[in-house]
Amino acid sequence: MYRVFIVEDDRTIAESLKKHLQTWGYEVSCVVDFKNVIDEFKTAAPQIVLLDIGLPFFNGFHWCQSIREISDVPIVFISSASDNMNIVMAMNMGGDDFIEKPFDMHVLTAKVQAILRRTYSLKSQLNIIEHQGVILNLSDATVTYEGQKIELSRNEYKIFQMLLERAGKIVPRDDIIEALWESESFIDDNTLTVNMTRLRKKLEEAGLIEFIQTKKGLGYVIP
């Protein structure tokens, strides 16, 4: 399920967008505090952003630039300020598309679908797993978050890959141990605990606090 983040101060428009996109199966959140858009963006960890230009405190160009400093998530501007200057500014600030208000909900949905398909099918072709800003590249066995590389051992990487591939689902400890034994890593229950502790510490040092959660008696999950 793709996550959509809406930055729109007209509550009627925001709620209409949210309701419509939810009927298409998207997980949608709307900004509440327009002074802290980036904090809410990080919490939402969306795959696409719908962004108005005219906003309280700071305009959409400001927030687009701020998002671009920490993420390459697709950004679609939605605004009635659709003169050429604003469209060019939106693209120069890092926007991926511009939809003029008033818009047809079905046209907007089609554009969102096209951008998501184009963006994330390409990542799949490149053997990349992306979740909440974390990018795991299967081609070169690297993990990056907000531009910083996270150095993992072989076992840590394999554990992290397994959890990311099943994000949102609990992965039993026995499944992880079995998978690593099959790859000749020879890991037992105690070794798994040690590797998980080290993995969590490295993620926390990169700013990923409680990224991996323990489900007592069941296993681990990346929500």
Automatic annotation (TrEMBL):
Location of the OmpR/PhoB-type domain = 126-223
Does the keyword field hold Lipid metabolism? no
Q: Which residues bind DNA?
A: 126-223
The entry's keywords: DNA-binding, Phosphoprotein, Transcription, Transcription regulation
The residue ranges of the Response regulatory domain are: 3-116
Cite the SMART domains for this sequence: REC (SM00448), Trans_reg_C (SM00862)
The answer to whether keyword DNA-binding applies is yes
Q: Which residues carry this modification: 4-aspartylphosphate?
A: 52
Function text = May play the central regulatory role in sporulation. It may be an element of the effector pathway responsible for the activation of sporulation genes in response to nutritional stress. Spo0A may act in concert with spo0H (a sigma factor) to control the expression of some genes that are critical to the sporulation process.
**Protein's name according to its UniProt entry:** Stage 0 sporulation protein A homolog
Q: Which organism encodes this protein? A: Bariatricus massiliensis
